[in-house]
Amino acid sequence: MTQDYNFDQLASRFQTKVYGGLKGRIRIAVLERDLNEFFPEIVAPAPKVSLNILDAGGGFGPFSILLAEKGHRVTICDLSEKMLEKARELFLAQGVDRNLSICHGPVQKLDRKLDGQFDLVLCHGVLGWIKEPAPFICRIMDLMAENGILSLSFYNLNGMIFKNLLRTNYKKILKKAYTGYPGSLTPCWPRTADQVTQWLDAHPFEILCQSGIRVFHDYILDPLDRERDPENQVQMELEFSRQPPFRDLGRYLHILGRKRI
Questions:
Q1: CB-side neighbour CA atoms (13 Å) of 82
Q2: Are 6 and 80 within 8 A, CB to CB?
Q3: pLDDT by residue (tens digit) across 172-216?
Q4: Secondary structure (3-state) at 123
Q5: Which pTM was predicted?
Q6: How far apart (Å, rounded) are the C-alpha atoms in residues 225 and 244?
């Protein structure tokens, strides 16, 4: 693939498969826990200040809508018109469309007038679909306000390798074919934590915490077992999500950090 991925053809499937069910519940739980610990003012039930939030590559806004419901102002930027249509419908249905702005197009081409305007940038599951991640991260840093927070999650290459090893899919590993099949929801360019922290280290940026997302859920081979006892499964995911080696095998990794002055 030679360019960043557009989800127009996979919008409905993405909404169901990625954020629907227990997978989506675990993802939201980890993201909320991390933000609540290090940036509680934005997830408080009644925040004192309305903040500016950019959901970069945010699709239909499954996480940012939770923040719009608290009164914060959300801008969703995405390549997919169909995803943005779903975002409008979702925010309208929840009665928070007044808190939503839409930008259709790549984050890299957002108006320079927006530089330094966002107190929080969400970038969830996007890096694996971006061909040139370093310039993308540079643009995100420009958009963040001083002391702004970045919530960055990405598809973990090591988790992908581990899952294929467990399924004895050795050909994929031997060929280093670390991409999804055409039309699949597996990202084109999985990343490692070392790669991403290296790109972040090129900027005045302080990492506050790192967590794994779905550190064991996806490795449960029996589909029935995978859906058994969801309450305890979410609890166990949260308990082990920051503990090596479990953290480092998460299907996604979450880095939460602050832009330094």
A1: 10
A2: yes
A3: 899 998 887 666 778 989 999 999 999 999 999 999 999 999 999
A4: strand
A5: 0.91
A6: 24
**Which residues are registered as beta bridge partners of 123?**
152
What is the helix (H) or strand (E) element at residue 1, kind and residue range?
A: none
Instruction: List pLDDT tens digits, range 75-102.
Output: 999 999 999 999 999 999 999 999 999 9
Question: Which two structure tokens, joined as six digits, stand for 247?
Answer: 């953290």
CB 58 within 8 A of CB 77: yes
Distance CA(64)–CA(118), nearest Å, equals: 13
Torsion of CA 231, 89, 183, 106, to 10 degrees: -110
How would you label 178-208 residue by residue, b for 16+ Cβ within 10 Å and e otherwise? bbbeeeeeebbbbbbbebbeebbeebebeee
- Retrieve residue 10's tokens: 């996979």
What letter represents residue 127's amino acid? Answer: L
How many residues in total does the chain contain?
261
Using CA atoms in the order 25, 31, 33, 35, what is the torsion angle rounded to 10 degrees?
-150
